[in-house]
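Help needed: design a sequence for this.
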C-alpha cells in the first residue's frame, strides 16, 4: 500500500545570502533534481552558489500543495526574494514555461500614474527583468503596487490608488555626506532636471535603495523630521549595503556585487585579497579596485583618479590656473589642493565646469599639451 504522507515542501536558496528563489512540493528524490524546464530557475542556479532544503515533511499531496502556495505567496508579498516559480503554487508543475505555458497570463507594467510601460509574457519574465517582487499580488488586485509601479494582467485596467499618486510631494537632494543640494516639486521634476530616472529617485525616497547616481534623495517632510542627517545616511547605508561591494577595472568599468564571496567567484580573485583592498591594505588586486558601495557612491566623481593611482600606479597631477590661464601651482592630485573641494576640481578637469573659486583647473598633461600647441 502506497504511503499517503510521502510528500514534502522544499526550497532552493543562495548559500551566501539565504535568499530563497524557488519553492516546490515533491516526493522521493525530486528535491535534488537540478535540471528543470524553468529557465529562470536554471539561470539563478547556474549563476549562484545554491543548495536546497526541506521545510515541511510527511504531508499528504493536498497539504503539500496548500503549504507550497502559502509559502510562495508569503515570499512574494513580504520579502525581496526573486522567486522564480512560474505559477503561484497549488498546481501541478507546468510542462512549459513563459509564453509557451497555457496557464501563464501576460502582465502589463504601468507607471504610478497609469501610463503604459511594457508588456511581459508572464509574471516570471517580469520578475526576472525588473527584479521586482510582489507583481502577482498587484496584478490580482491584492496590493496597490509593486516596486513603485502598477501591474495588471492583459486586458485589465489598473486601478490607480489615490494615496500612491502624489506627484507634488516635494523631495530633497543631498550629497552622499548629507549636505543639502536642492529641492524639487516631486520625483518627476527632479528626474527632468537631473536626467536621473523617476523610478530610481522614487525608490531612494521610499528607502528601497540607499542612493542613486551619487546622491541621497528624501521626501521633504521626512528630511525635516531627521535630527542628525549624517548619522541617518550612514545607518541607511550600513543596513542596506553593508555587504555590497564595487569592482572597478583599469578601463573604469564598474561591476557591483552583493558580497565579497560573489565578487570572488565572478572575478576569480581570492576573498582575502578583496578584503585587503576594501580595508586599504592593498591598493588593487588582479587589475581591480574594490570599494564598499558607500565609498563608491561617495567618490563617484573621482573614479578616474582612483584608477590612475591605485591600478596604474601614478598620480594625476593637477594644474591650478588664474582665470586668464597663468599657472599658479601644480598639485599631486585633486585631494592635495588644500582648502579646495576635490570633487569640484575634478569637474573642472573633466570639462563639467569652467572654473571653481575664481581659478581654472586642468589635468597637468592637458595644460602641457596646450603649451606645446601654442
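Sure. Designed sequence:
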Amino acid at each position: 500500500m502506497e504511503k499517503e504522507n510521502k510528500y514534502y515542501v522544499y526550497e532552493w536558496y543562495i548559500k551566501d545570502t539565504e535568499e530563497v528563489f524557488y519553492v516546490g512540493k515533491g516526493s522521493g528524490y525530486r528535491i535534488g533534481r537540478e535540471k528543470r524546464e524553468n529557465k529562470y530557475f536554471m539561470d539563478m542556479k547556474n549563476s549562484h552558489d545554491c543548495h536546497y532544503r526541506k521545510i515541511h515533511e510527511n504531508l499528504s499531496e493536498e497539504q503539500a500543495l496548500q503549504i507550497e502556495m502559502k509559502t510562495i505567496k508569503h515570499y512574494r508579498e513580504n520579502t525581496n526574494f526573486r522567486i522564480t516559480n512560474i505559477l503561484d503554487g497549488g498546481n501541478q508543475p507546468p510542462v512549459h514555461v513563459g509564453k509557451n505555458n497555457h496557464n501563464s497570463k501576460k502582465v502589463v507594467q504601468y507607471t504610478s500614474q497609469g501610463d503604459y510601460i511594457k508588456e511581459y509574457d508572464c509574471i516570471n519574465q517580469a520578475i526576472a527583468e525588473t527584479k521586482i517582487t510582489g507583481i502577482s499580488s498587484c496584478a490580482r488586485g491584492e496590493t496597490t503596487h509593486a516596486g513603485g509601479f502598477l501591474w495588471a494582467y492583459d486586458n485589465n485596467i489598473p486601478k490607480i490608488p489615490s494615496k500612491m499618486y502624489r506627484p507634488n510631494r516635494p523631495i530633497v537632494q543631498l550629497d552622499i555626506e548629507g549636505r543639502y543640494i536642492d529641492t524639487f516639486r516631486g520625483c518627476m521634476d527632479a528626474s527632468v532636471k537631473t536626467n536621473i530616472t523617476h523610478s530610481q529617485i522614487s525608490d531612494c525616497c521610499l528607502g528601497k535603495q540607499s542612493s542613486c547616481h551619487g546622491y541621497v534623495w528624501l521626501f521633504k517632510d521626512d528630511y525635516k523630521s531627521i535630527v542628525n542627517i549624517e548619522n541617518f545616511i550612514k545607518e541607511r547605508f550600513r543596513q542596506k549595503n553593508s555587504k555590497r561591494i564595487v569592482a572597478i577595472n583599469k578601463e573604469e568599468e564598474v561591476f557591483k556585487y552583493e558580497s565579497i564571496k560573489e565578487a570572488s567567484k565572478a572575478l576569480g580573485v581570492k576573498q582575502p585579497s578583496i578584503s585587503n583592498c576594501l580595508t586599504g591594505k592593498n591598493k588593487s588586486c588582479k587589475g581591480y579596485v574594490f570599494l564598499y558601495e558607500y565609498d563608491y557612491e561617495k567618490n563617484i566623481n573621482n573614479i578616474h583618479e582612483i584608477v590612475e593611482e591605485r591600478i596604474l600606479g601614478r598620480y594625476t597631477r593637477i594644474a591650478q590656473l588664474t582665470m586668464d590661464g597663468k599657472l599658479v601651482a601644480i598639485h599631486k592630485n585633486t585631494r592635495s589642493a588644500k582648502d579646495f573641494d576635490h570633487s569640484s576640481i575634478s569637474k573642472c578637469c573633466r570639462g563639467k565646469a569652467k572654473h571653481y573659486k575664481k581659478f581654472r583647473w586642468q589635468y597637468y598633461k592637458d595644460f602641457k599639451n596646450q603649451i606645446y600647441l601654442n
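Residues 247 and 255 are 5 Å apart (CA to CA).
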